[in-house]
Structure formats: C-alpha cells, structure tokens
Amino acid sequence: MKRMIAIGLIGLGIGGCAVDPISDYLRNHNYKAITPVSDGHYVGGIYPKNDLSGAPLILLTDVLDKNKAIEYMNTVKGNSSLSTEAVNKTYDIGADVEIIGYLGATLKTNGIKKFSVRASGAKEYVLSQAKFKQLLDDKYKKLLEGSSVNGKYYVYSLLKVDSLEYEFFNENDTKIAVETLENLEGKIKAKIGPEWKVTKNASLMFDEPRFIGFRAKKIHTDASGNVVLKRAPINDDGPGGEEPRPHPEGPNCYRDCP
Q: What is the pLDDT of residues 66-122, one digit of tens each?
C-alpha cells in the first residue's frame, strides 16, 4: 500500500513558531534529514551507522545498473503533494530546524532571524520487509558472503521533493534583500550543498528533485540465525548505545562521505 504524506505549502506571514512544518513532519515520522540534499539515494542500502556515514556494506546500485535501480525504486514509490495546515507563518531560525539549520549562525550574523518555506512534489519510497529480505537472499547474498550484517542498518524509506524554497526575514518580519542572500550564496552552498540557488525574488531554493529524508531499520540475527528487522530510533546511532541528534551548527554528512 502506498503511504500518503501530509505535505505542504508554508507561506510567509507574521509571528514565529517553534518548529516549522517540514522539521515537524520529518521528526514525527521518524525521518532523519539528508543534508546536503541529494539525488543519488536508493532504498535497500546497508550502512554501519544510522546516519548513513561511513562506507556502506552494499547499495542497490552494486547489484543493479542505474536504469534497473530506477525501475526498482519506481516499484516502491508513492506520490503525494506537500501540504500542511500551517499557512501564513514565519518560523524562528534555531537548532531545531532541519535542512537549513546548519546555516543558523551564518544567517543570524547577517540579520536573518526568521524564515518561511514552500515545498512541492513530495514522493515517498518505502521498501517492505519482505522485499528487503528478498534482496538479501537473492541479489545481495553473493556480494555479502563473509560479511556480517548483524547490528547494521538498512534504508527502508526515503522522502523526496521536486522543489524546496525558503524566504528569509529580519526580527521585524521584513523580507531580506536579495543582495544579502547573494553575498551569502557561497557560504550557503558550502554548508548545505551546491544545488541551492538564490532567486531574483530573494528566496533560496532548489528546483530539481532531491531526497530530503530517510528512515532506517536495524538488522540482527536471532538465535536461529534468522534476520530480524527493527525500526531504528531516530537518535540511535549504532549498536551499543544512542547518541543525541547532531547540532545544526556542527559537522554533518548524511550521504556517502569520502
């Protein structure tokens, strides 16, 4: 069954709010943000940690060529539109903001205190437990021979949007001039990725499909040697303990880092 996503349009308005709807949605649905946003993710990848850092044990593209991998992704895709009840609001820039939280200090030192956000064309890719076990037993088995997947994590869900756009305001809810963002464009791209661009309307956006969130399940074997899958808590960073969510001003990489 395709999962429907409550997604949304968040406009500009008056008054700040603690958490913007995109951050709220990611957290309430146990997603971790993918920062920088990426167009190169696939379900089914197995990673040593729950933040997608470190070298993956195996990826879907290790067993399927790119065209076949895209076809596979289409079999687990559900379409939706980004909509929310929160309309005509601005939101305070803080440590609890996903996606652009890493820009917090840079924005604040330039008089940017609030933002609004708009997203469109959301899609969710959900790999069932049965499909993942089929991957393990069929396509992954040979490449994983001699490697243990016990305690590792596999990506079972991805959230993708066609576009994501932010507008920024000072503490008095006055929109920031385009020149301010243009002067910051280099720093912005260095922190959250080269996909972002400053528009003539003084907004920051990407307008090509990108993945913005993922969910993972932990793998372990039971006493009989059977693979058992459990949803990983959003702050579970690996076997042996939990670590807090990274602070948006700290180092981050949710895709395959060198």
A: 999 999 999 999 865 455 444 568 999 987 899 998 899 999 999 999 999 988 888
Burial readout 88-101 (b: 16 or more C-beta within 10 A, e: otherwise): ebbbbbbebbbbbb
How many CB atoms are closer than 10 A to CB 241?
7
Distance of CA 140 to the CA centre of its chain: 25
Which DSSP string corresponds to the chain? -PPP----B----SS--SS-HHHHHHHHTTPEEEEEEES---TT-EESSTTS-S--SB-HHHHS-HHHHHHHHHHTEEE-----S--S--EE-STT-SSSGGGHHHHHTTT--EEEEEEE--EEEE--HHHHHHHIIIIITTTTTT---TT-EEEEEEEEESEEEEEEE-TTSPBPPHHHHHHHHHHHHHHH-TT-EE-TTSEEEE-S-EEEEEEEEEEEE-TTS-EEEEEPPTT--STT---PPPPTTS----S---
Residue 63 in tokens: 């067993």
Nearest-CA neighbor of 216 among 203, 240, 232?
Answer: 232
**Rounded Cα distance, 182 and 2, in Å:** 40
Q: How far apart are CA 88 and CA 101, in angstroms?
A: 21
Task: Name the one residue in this structure whose structure tokens are 């507008």.
Answer: 167
Q: What is the C-alpha to C-alpha distance for residues 234 and 216, in angstroms, rounded to an integer? A: 9
pTM above 0.85, yes or no: no
